[in-house]
Amino acid sequence: MSTFSKSLPVAIGCDHAGYEYKEAIKAHLQKLGWQVKDFGTDGPGSVDYPDFAHPTSSFVESGEAAFGVLICGSANGVAITANKHQGVRAGLCWDNEVAKLVRMHNNANIICLPARFVALPYALQMVDTFMETAFEGGRHANRVGKISCS
Q1: pLDDT single digits (tens) 92-142
Q2: Please, what are the domains in the chain?
Q3: What is the CA radius of gyration of the chain?
Q4: pLDDT-derived band of residue 1, with 50, 70 and 90 as boundaries?
Q5: DSSP string covering 14-42
Q6: Residues annotated catalytic, as ranges
Q7: Which terms are listed as keywords in the entry (predicted)?
Q8: Rounded distance, CA 49 to CA 36, Å?
Q9: How far apart, in whole angstroms, are the C-alpha atoms of residue 108 and residue 3?
């Protein structure tokens, strides 16, 4: 069961290294009943990750998406790009426990996945964990409130 509202779509984007994972994650989310707004890329040809991470992040930041998923080779590039957006808290996840903690402790609204370093079934599991985990609030809410520079 998701902690996010299905009344909004999921925003998803990737570079060439994440294309295969994006397609699989998109199909997985749709099978679970989610609408998905795909910001590309649309194939395995070499592209620049910011061209896809920025529009995905803007859609999440604007409140038009329930949450976002970004994928690139290491997930570092998309995470760095996404976190330039003041209303985004993007967490780079390489482990299921990390996917849980970025929601519980950081109230992350975008999960960033490293396609070259985690198997696809594990990436799908991390997306599920991310969706199913609620923000714990409490002492973490004060910390999250201090993240923004504005």
Answers
A1: 999 999 999 999 999 999 999 999 999 999 999 999 999 999 988 788 877
A2: 10-145 (3.40.1400.10)
A3: 14
A4: low
A5: E-GGGHHHHHHHHHHHHHTT--EEE----
A6: 72, 105
A7: Isomerase
A8: 19
A9: 12
